[in-house]
């Protein structure tokens, strides 16, 4: 009797979704390395592009909003405040966008062999994290120069904010990545979502301006957006301590929204729900990926 005789039968091409990614970590690392090599093949600057884009973004926003519109006077250490939000949105935008396109980018592998298709969106998110951490180091240096002395709660806020963004980008990437195989318009929707999310989260302005302009019910919807909570958690982690933890801003508003940890918990739950929905849709559609590609 062969060694395989006692093993239970399984349906070919079906797996356990994201759990299979954990069992194939070595293969995941190979895909990540392949994506990094392909991305920078023939590039002169290589990984230096990780700094160029956020530097230009920061310069444009700081000049337009900080200098021309006076946010530099209204928000202490506005440069740290702005950059901490920018790197959050860059991580989300790159992770979400690349995960959406990951199945198409890896069409030859999808057509030739069976492997957990979730490997590709997860690998794209991993590549986005690789690009995130050099920007994060710049933020740390700027925060320390500004006088940053974090408390354990503030450090925990940064970790929770990162987890929220990673989960949200992965969940949306699974959902839109599966749909994008059948309808290429999904890529255009992703670009629109990222653009709206950047301006619809307190990256470039303070939450007080939104609270003053919206009715209470709409304000609560705004706060329930996981990206809003993630950005505010990064502000709490890397900006708030460098400003001396003031009770109010020079303009009269509070530096942090009320019930921040409550909204962070809601954001974490919403992100987990998005991952669950994305995984369900992805598994329902993945059986037709090869024939569509």
TrEMBL record:
Q: What is this protein called?
A: Transport permease protein
Localization, per the record, is: Cell inner membrane; Cell membrane
Q: Which terms are listed as keywords in the entry?
A: Cell inner membrane, Cell membrane, Membrane, Transmembrane, Transmembrane helix, Transport
User: Which Pfam families does the UniProt record give?
Assistant: ABC2_membrane (PF01061)
Q: What is the lineage of its organism?
A: Bacteria, Bacillati, Actinomycetota, Actinomycetes, Micrococcales
How is this protein positioned relative to the membrane? Multi-pass membrane protein
Which source organism does the UniProt entry give?
Answer: Xylanimonas oleitrophica
Q: Which GO terms describe its cellular component?
A: plasma membrane
Domain ABC transmembrane type-2, chain residue ranges per copy: 45-285
């Amino acid at each position: 009797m062969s060694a395989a005789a006692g093993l239970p039968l399984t349906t070919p091409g079906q797996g356990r979704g994201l759990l299979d990614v954990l069992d194939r970590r070595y293969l995941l690392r190979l895909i990540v390395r392949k994506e990094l090599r392909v991305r920078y093949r023939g590039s002169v600057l290589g990984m230096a592009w990780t700094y160029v884009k956020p530097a230009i973004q920061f310069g444009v926003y700081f000049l337009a909003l900080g200098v021309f519109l006076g946010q530099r006077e209204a928000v202490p250490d506005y440069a740290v405040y702005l950059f901490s939000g920018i790197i959050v949105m860059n991580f989300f935008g790159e992770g979400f966008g690349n995960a959406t396109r990951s199945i198409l980018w890896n069409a030859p592998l999808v057509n030739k062999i069976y492997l957990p298709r979730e490997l590709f969106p997860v690998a794209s998110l991993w590549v986005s994290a690789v690009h995130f951490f050099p920007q994060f180091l710049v933020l740390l240096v700027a925060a320390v120069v500004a006088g940053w002395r974090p408390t354990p709660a503030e450090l925990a806020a940064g970790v929770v904010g990162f987890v929220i963004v990673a989960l949200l980008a992965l969940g949306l990437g699974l959902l839109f990545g599966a749909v994008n195989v059948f309808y290429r318009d999904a890529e255009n929707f992703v670009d629109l979502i990222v653009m709206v999310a950047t301006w619809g989260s307190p990256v470039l302005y303070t939450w007080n301006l939104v609270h003053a302009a919206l009715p209470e019910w709409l304000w609560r919807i705004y706060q329930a957006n996981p990206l809003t909570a993630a950005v505010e958690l990064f502000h709490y982690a890397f900006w708030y301590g460098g400003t001396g933890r003031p009770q109010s801003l020079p303009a009269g508003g509070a530096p942090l929204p009320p019930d921040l940890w409550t909204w962070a918990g809601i954001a974490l739950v919403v992100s987990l729900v998005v991952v669950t929905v994305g995984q369900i849709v992805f598994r329902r559609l993945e059986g037709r990926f090869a024939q569509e590609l």
